[in-house]
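Just curious: can you write a single protein's sequence together with how it folds?
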Amino acid sequence: MPAELCKACEGVKKVRAGDNASKLIAADDGYARPTTKADLMSIRFSKRLFTGALIGSLTMVMVGMARAELDDDVARTVDQHIRSVLRETGGVAVAVRANGRTWFFNYGMADGSQPITSDVLFNLGSVGKVFDTSILALADQQGELDLDDPVAKYVVELQQRGDVRRITLRQLATYTSGFVLPQDHPPWPEKTFTLPEFIATLNAWTSDKDHEPGKQMVYSHAGFVLLHLALERRFGVPFHELMTQRLFKPLGLRSTTLPMASADAKLNPRGEIPEALARHAVQGYSEDGTPIGAPGNLQGYYHWLETGQMYASARDMAVFLTANLGELPDHAALQEAMRRAQQGAFPTGDGVYQALAWEVRKGDETIVDKYGGMNNASAYIGLIPERKVGVVILGNRGSMAVSEVGRRIILSLARR
């Protein structure tokens, strides 16, 4: 107890019970003396408040130091691994989620003069497929369709004949339908499709021992083109509107987009990235640094609307990542659908299982991830759901080793 307080207590004068309980009497030395037990309790309470405030301040300092240490740790981890994919041309945007927090890191150039930021837009390539399966799983969860429905239930032109009638929505989403086209794998052919030509090809398709519905996993982008068509038919709206209604808008993804109808449909049959967003798109480069296409470039073999690639920023992808980790408030149904989409169902060997577009890699830590690659873009999203850790890497150059780097980052963060 401070000396002044001890001295004050010694000089307290007695007061009658009827005196004012809060009265203080001045002693000869000029100090105000507490006159009642209540006054002494008040002093003790004030001391406790002071001590509590001091402890609280020290705790805040320690928390701040811990946060700064974590910031440095995450930055070092990302920087250590990401350098291996950087070249003179192009760059990457990185979003990291861990400990309930999000970090952004940016490297290199969006084009010849502008640096990459967390708000520029990248072509997601096949990473867009995990958006597709999020709304597919949500529709199944809500009883609007069944994953085991035949695709011909919705694309009625496929009810005529052939083995395509045996293919289900689940098989399309897990690459196990058996349906694959030469356009799905190198060497890349020249032939393209209109929608009537695609339907005719589907009806003419026959299975064989290596391409049997539900029996093997063979990557098929054509299968996701068909899945888009089935979802459009089921809900009676264009695919980009369905995605906006069920995912982009609820999550507040303002810079994530699919192509919209072009004023010149003959020149741009797949549509175009909206001009307001295309202005923020990166320039894409080949592996060796040669520019390919204009910012907002769309590619593919399918020449009709709703078949082009998705574009998004690292900032929006961080929100999508957070939702897939189940950490967004007020989105329980959507996040449950995302969790279900991540469940590996079809073994593909070496501890890897195919989920709905996602791949599940089981080991000391179970990684759920997806890679997307174009000749002018590379994208990766990966997470360890049990650890609530994840990373997004978006690059504007083809053939970047973002999957390997992404897995190293999230494993390093999970083992801290």
Notes: The chain is about 35% helix and 15% strand.
